[in-house]
Amino acid sequence: MTLEIRKHGRVGAEILGIDLSRPFATGDLAAIRAAFAEHGVVFFRDQSISEEQHIAFARNWGEININRFFAAHPDYPEIALVVKEPDQQHNIGGGWHTDHSYDFEPALGSILVARELPAQGGATAFASMYAAYDGLPEALRARIEGRSAVHSARHVFGSKAGVYEAAQDTRQDGRIGNSGAADVLDDPVHPMVITHPLSGKRAIYVNPSFTVRIQGLSEDASQELLQEIYAHCVKPEFQEDFHWRDGSIAFWDNRATWHYAYNDYHGHRREMHRITIEGEVLR
Domain of 57? Predict the structure, then answer.
């Protein structure tokens, strides 16, 4: 098979001519890496991979993050289960966000494999933070350049705050201690505009789910500016839907995209397997 990279509408690229259950041909991994950096999210169709192959593919990109909030696969702790049962009303990821911005070293990205899908519905929307940055009005760009924002998961995973703090407490970044549970967690601060570590492109790095305030502004001014940025980022020209089929895989970059899981398949089961790759400090 010959690898082909095809743009996926306004956001992302679809990668054809590859079987992820087989060893990579010469140059294929580098081509996927380049497409991932350039487009922010890449999609694969008609794949049939085992859990072991899912893990092996993920390890090409870095260390695997063992998720501390989602249920783990009973046999493969590297895999987080993203499941909605027929009787559940709420889904996971049902709002614009970027994963793990509440970590001091935010995750590189996540690889999501479709395992059980509803007959219809359940698409995922992706928004490009490269395109959103490039499309910023000059006045709004000037208001956020050089600023930083605080990110947190406390308001989302409050019932698991102890787990959250204990897990974060093991990080060796000098801002939180290593005593096990005694120290109080400091929420991370990230630049509002980053230089992407792979592509070198500029990208907006705030999101509605986990960004809680902008440093150096009053609460009212902070929320007003964040809402203005969010309204800009979700403009239709910056986003595209991905419609899942059996054998579909999405690999998105948390530093370059937002995503949103549609909750439009009530009464049906959906099971996805997610592996998240560790990242680095953003600048």
Answer: 1-152+187-283
